[in-house]
């Protein structure tokens, strides 16, 4: 009987100790998402993503081209095959060389088509 | 008959200089290895007063990016008719664009200046990357651009 009582007391004490430690840990760190990455490095900040893609605040017209989709004339923004035809509601792309004579701006002589090559 | 011959001679005399008043000019633009996407380039000319005279070439076919060719865009308002028939693909870093155009003689030794504006996605715009006076003496002399053009020259 004494032996049973001793075992009961010991197991209760052990359970209480472990339980208290676990409970304390959860109380001290009320950041369930951040706790997942707590390995000595600072947790990554939570970034709230808006569905508003307007990035005018960082587009200082100094070279940031992305974000021109508001006046996009084509479906694939990454290709540059220069074969886009006129588009509705946006700026017209110019006629490529060879498809039309150079403009009559007084700079060109006989209107011969330009020869171009890229090496 | 004599008057007909005289008229013929006169018209020939007037026409020949007009035909000869142009020459093939090769514009060679070499880009540096700037480590970005293909560059848009606008090649255009200003007159002795600095006013826009016209465009010679546009490298890059999408007009929505032309606003980044700042000086050209300001001068033309982005009018794509200015570059109809003289537009090609953008030019990759480290590549050389060589264009041969039939240019009027009147552009040379008359105070005209050839400008190159450059722009690259996600990099800084470079208006007036190159500005060279058009002179016969300056032909064949390479000049360096400010940011993306490692060398530019015109030959005739």
Shape of chain A: rod-shaped
Total beta-strand segments of chain A: 1
Q: Helix amount of chain A, in percent?
A: 25-40%
Residue windows where pLDDT falls under 50 for at least 5 positions of chain A? 25-38, 50-61, 74-86
Please write the string of helix (H) and strand (E) elements of chain A: HHE
Strand content of chain B: 35-45%
Oligomer: heterodimer
General description of the model:
- The complex is a heterodimer of chains A (119) and B (156).
- Chain A is mostly helical.
- Chain A has two helices and one strand; from the N terminus they run ααβ.
- Chain A has helices at 2-28, 32-35, and one strand at residues 115-118.
- Chain A starts with a helix and ends with a strand.
- With 156 residues, chain B is an alpha+beta fold.
- Chain B has one domain: Sandwich (Immunoglobulin-like), CATH 2.60.40.
- Chain B has two helices and eight strands, in the order αβββαβββββ.
- Chain B has helices spanning 2-20, 70-76; strands at 22-31, 39-46, 52-59, 87-88, 96-104, 113-120, 126-133, 149-155.
- A five-stranded mixed beta sheet of chain B has the order 4-3-2-6-7, covered by helices on one side. A three-stranded antiparallel beta sheet of chain B has the order 5-1-8.
- The longest helix of chain B has 19 residues, at 2-20.
- Chains A and B meet through strand 1 of A and strand 3, strand 4 and strand 5 of B.
- Strand 1 of chain A pairs antiparallel with strand 5 of chain B.
